[in-house]
Amino acid sequence: MKKTATAKQVLKILRGNQIVQMTIAIFIVINITAAVVYFFEHRTNADQYKNYGDAVWWSIVTVATVGYGDIVPKSELGRIFASLTILSGVILISLFTATISSVFVARKIKESQGLQDIDFKQHTLICGWNAQVEDVLRIFDRYHTKQMQVVLVNETQSERIETVINAFQNIEIKFVRGDFSRETILNRANVKAAAYAIVVPDAGNSGADEKTLLSILTMKSLNPKLKVCAHIINKENRQHIKRANADEVFVSDQHTAFFLANNILYPGAAQVASEMLDYERGNDVHRIGVPENFVGKTFGELYIDFKKKKNWTILGLINEEETVNLNDILSHDTSAIDAFIERKFREAGINVAEKSGTRVNVNPPFEYVLQKKDIAVILGTLE
User: Fold this and answer.
1) In a domain, 335, yes or no
2) 86, 270, 320, 324 from 361: Cα distances, Å
3) Residue 28's CATH number
4) Mean pLDDT in residue range 251-257
5) How many Å apart are CA 213 and CA 238, to the nearest integer?
6) 336 located within any domain
7) Residue where one domain finishes, among candidates 254, 269, 302
8) Which of 33, 107, 355, 378 could cysteine-pair with 312, CB 3.0–4.6 Å?
9) If you write DSSP's letter for every residue of 46-103 in order, what string do you get?
10) Are 269 and 276 in contact (CB under 8 A)?
């Protein structure tokens, strides 16, 4: 039964792969012509056709239309068959070359139309399309030290995507066309092997947040380890997106009120914050692991060392140690105890479904003792 299934799989591959078919055809022609010519020549032309290997060499050279002339048939029947071999070789090699060309052209067309399966590993998905996507790619292109692999998943016109791909030569970008909330489209983008995903609302889509929620649920079901960052329009949907296990959620214009109010209350303060966030002005924000020789020392010592030696200003510390939340503890069965505990936490206003693996410590005190997993977020230029 197993052998029969394997044979069927092989036949299916052979039927669907033109290059394999042409390769097999050339192999058969080479061996048939070698056997026939060897039969005619090995007695009367033994000095050139010493063995079957010499005949195979002659057949390969003839079929490939190279024609070295080091071995040639001398008998009348051998020459007649050699003439047929030359004609068949020209036809087969032409067909083989055309087949390879057509396969590559078809693949290129499918890639440009967003219909090709993606084979990237540990890549970043950018799902959706709006004005922010090009800015994200521009930041990737500027700050990433090695070439990134990015897959754009959206329903934008392929001509527009092609322009974007050509604009960022330092990023390896591929395109998958389709609805990014559908499992088949995400599988084409190889979501199971992806490391990160950014979900942005499509421009002009009134139900963008609902689509974002559905897409995150689908992504997380296919790849639970995927780190998802979502951009939503309505802040009231933030809790729903977090319950879908999005790692980070950003709301449109969530900082607008801060900049407007602070521009009146504390003139200049908002401009400083805006300047830090403007990547085009060269004010780079980076993350630097705490050096081993500073683990166990105070934050103040590291702050002074970075400022003196590198002219880096530490804005804060982050710690990406995995956290445990209530959902990891509760069994989610029909137990009255689990239901009671979960209900009490919800009544207290604690979201048992929300968790984040990143702990942020902005402007820590100088006496804070640095830990091994602490990462410094600095304002400055890397050497």
Assistant:
1) no
2) 77, 21, 11, 18
3) 1.10.287.70
4) 82
5) 10
6) no
7) 254
8) 378
9) TTT--SHHHHHHHHHHHHTT----SS---SHHHHHHHHHHHHHHHHHHHHHHHHHHHH
10) no
Q: Pick from 352, 334, 333, 331: which is nearest to 343 by CA?
A: 352
Which of 372, 378, 166 lies closest to 287, judged by CA?
Answer: 378
Instruction: Check whether residue 175 and residue 277 sit in a common domain.
Output: no
Kindly state whether residues 154 and 84 are assigned to the same domain: no
Structure tokens at 18: 């033109």
Tokens of 363: 């402007």
In the prediction, which pLDDT does 89 show? 83
* Paired tokens of 145: 């030290």
Please check whether residues 265 and 371 belong to one and the same domain.
yes
Would you say residue 153 lies in a domain?
yes
310: enclosing H helix or E strand: helix 299-310
- What is the CA angle 200-229-314, rounded to 5? 120
Quick one: what percent of the chain has pLDDT higher than 90?
A: 28
Q: Which of 324, 317, 323 is nearest to 361 (CA)?
A: 317
pLDDT in tens, 318-349: 987 655 454 554 544 545 555 655 565 555 55
Enter the DSSP assignment of 128.
S
Instruction: Identify the domain boundary among 60, 91, 112.
Output: 112
> Under DSSP, is residue 140 helix (H, G, I), strand (E, B) or coil?
helix
pLDDT-derived band at 58 (thresholds 50, 70, 90) equals: confident
Please tell me the distance from the alpha carbon of residue 236 to that of residue 253, in angstroms, as a whole number. Answer: 13
pTM of the model: 0.63
C-alpha distance across the termini of the chain, in Å: 63
Residue 143 has which token pair?
């700050």
Neighbours of 330 (CB within 10 A): 16
For residue 93, give its domain range: 2-112
Residue type, 124: T
Given a contact cutoff of 8 angstroms between Cβ atoms, the answer to whether 231 and 205 are in contact is no
Segment of 42-51, 76-85, 138-147, 358-367 carrying the highest mean pLDDT: 358-367
The whole-angstrom separation of Cα 232 and Cα 220 is 18
